[in-house]
Amino acid sequence: MSAKLASILLNDASILTKLLSIIAKLLSMLLKTLTLINYKNFENKSFDFDSKVNCFVGLNGVGKSNILDSIYHLSYGKSYFNPIPSQNIRHGEEYFMINGMYSINKKEENIIISLKKGVKKIIKRNNKLYRKFSDHIGLIPLVIISPTDRNLIIEGSDTRRKFIDSIISQVNKDYLKDIITYNKILAQRNSLLKYFAKNNTFESETIDVYDIQLSDMSKRIYKSRSSFMNDFVPIFKNRYKTISENNEEVDIVYKSDLHDSNLIDLLKNSIKKDLILQYTSKGTHRDDLVFLKNDYSIKKFGSQGQQKSFLISLKLAQFDFLEKQNNSPILLLDDIFDKLDDSRVKQIVNLVNEDKFKQIFISDTNKKRTENAIKSVNKSYKIFEL
User: Fold this and answer.
1) Which residue has the higher pLDDT, 375 or 290?
2) Residue 92: which residues within 8 A CB-CB, separation 6 or more?
């Protein structure tokens, strides 16, 4: 690049932005091979994948979802379905290992995750051990759509916070650091509240130290979440409109204690309550998302099909957001055709036929249904019968 051209680009933000956007679109990523050793129900199993669509078909219980979970594990450093690491080790064995060979921007990247009973889990990238698991997050963007996503609707606010945190953390390392730091300080403050209650004492100067730190962290977390929701909700609405064929109106409302006040004031005003409860009752760790259909709770008034469409739209919006920020994510579809009518299945198949969807992994109990759906998609594919 000539010095003159470089000068023009640096002095024209719009041209530079367009150039970076073009470069981003040229980036590519795919999982080439996968080897599982003592992972869940697999003793030793290897796969060579197609660069576009890969399908795992078979009866319930043969391990289709376990394969998708291992791919998720390679991206996030943890299981999507089982948060207890040791329970991912095959029964009767002492360890598990997941070995994935990727092509990221035309460069081979080898990711290995292993766990031995009684020993801390390790993650290696090209045989180099990660010092912190958080350093790995964002390298391999990935979105999973699964029946267990219904927990986003039926469970508590913690599940929904983790959902938005996982998306933002994939594109913002500082945000991930803030969340980790905030949770550590929060745990320390809660321990102090328990100490006060147990010893029938109180030291305002000590609690103030934690309050100031939490307040500083919460400002950045709240700002990041608010900005994310402003970008994310319109994407989500557009996805749902396509799946429902414009028949329903949906929305996501971001709830936070910080909408109307700063955290330092909230903590001071709630200290008496916190001392009784022995935990911190105000803060960004209490944030929540409200899912609505036609201004009513999707949890209370949405049919099973509408809830599933809502969740699929939520995850496809996650894909769209990450795709704009990063490489096109790997997409995992775990048994998503179940309980959907033909019209909605068709809409989903049409959606994943877009060029932005690169490598896709699908699990299903019905081989014929899967094969018919895939044949209508103009992509190469492999079917693995388990």
Assistant:
1) 290
2) none
